[in-house]
Amino acid sequence: MGAIQLIRGTRDILPEEAYYWQQVEAVARQILNRAVYQEIRPPIFEQTALFERGIGEATDVVSKEMYTFRDLGDRSITLRPEGTAGVVRAFIEHNLHTQGVKRLWYGGSMFRYERPQAGRQRQFHQIGVELIGSADPRADVEVIAIATDILQTLGLKSLRLDLNSVGNPEERQRYREALVSYLTPYAQELDQDSQERLHRNPIRILDSKDKRTQEITQNAPTILDHLGSESQAHFEKVQQRLTDLGIDYQINPYLVRGLDYYTHTAFEIQSDDLGAQATVCGGGRYDGLVAQLGGPDTPAVGWAIGMERLILLLQKLQAAPTPSPDFYVVSRGDRAEAQALLLAQKLRQSEMKVELDLSGSAFTKQFKRADRSGAVACLVLGDAEAENHTVQLKWMASQQQRTIPQAELLSMTEELRDQIDLLVGPS
RNA sequence: GCGAGCGUAGCCAAGGGGUUAAGGCAGUGGAUUGUGGUUCCACCAUUCGCGGGUUCGAUUCCCGCCGUUCGCCCCA
Fold it and tell me: Where in the sequence is the domain holding A362, given as residue range(s)?
């Protein structure tokens, strides 16, 4: 068939699902507002070099997952694979560091060329925060607390917060060497992937799912043993403050994040209900990134929530309500139809929810649809009503019906509102 | 990028080398041309993801492609 279909790894968010998106956006907005985070909207595409420099050329994201192309001016353009790099670029470009500590949030589409899977798409959406300009451990805790607040307010339970410190670059380098020398004698026993990672990215071996590899790494040195006293103090403070706030976490020394810019605190919030793509929220501190991208040396911490994954969880928790109008307007005959349209418009302007039947079919059919729409009441206009400028108001549940002048109906919207709220509750 | 499973209507599906491709839900029309939720009737896939092959004949068997699901990898 000739119909054009959507591109692999993309999805249409249909009205039923859009309900959940709006719910998440509303909750997130509210909680971010209270913490006085401001929205920032960088472009969806940037110079390729931004991501290469920011995320790291050797990372999977940059080396094989970017949507990169040349535009007509022969510039290398990349659709953003994550949000932090663009936000930091904007932070530097507009000298936002002159404004002290900046608390920013963003939302929108990200693009990665990956094999689609449940909870993993090529175009996906994130909401993220960046707290730029503070090295205080309380900053780490603040952003984590915002994330857990959002998730909790949405009703999500049984999520795990995994916490680790990846130290500073020097500590990580020392650790890397220690790990390689520990693993090298076992090289032949490691699984295929891990053998390849031994020199390219040994830290990743720690979260291998291979059984034998896991046995070997059981006794491997951990990053936590290689932290200097400052890093250690920072990490301990973060833990202490999390505990103060009553936020449960578990230390996971194997937690490694895939983007190069992370320093010190790294964390993930995971769910058991998502299969292989368990991470709903991931983030951490990135003290080197602002300088790395040409700005003043500025510490920062942030996270991103995966909207699709979050919504998968939400959908398991609660069904989306179907929207139903206050009034369903039934009409037949030219004059009546014209008056019905006008009446509907006026009622909407008085903040009533009104659905107008456009079919022109028999009243029986229109009432059938009115019933299915879940309307609280029907407004009926036929030839007789059109003639007298009246309308029949029929309450669906009680089947009580009376004839009212249209002008009167419009002047009693307050009472109608009260009555509807009484019947079905405020919407 | 690799491995495995799946692909019959808007949704859930039965079927199986030979022409009528079950059924249910939803939808549309009617019984009921001015009044709903029940009921009854009718309609609703010239076609079984797409392309090619085998065959007298394929939706059914084979191959390729596409999509999707699960896992690996990676991450949100």
Answer: 327-424
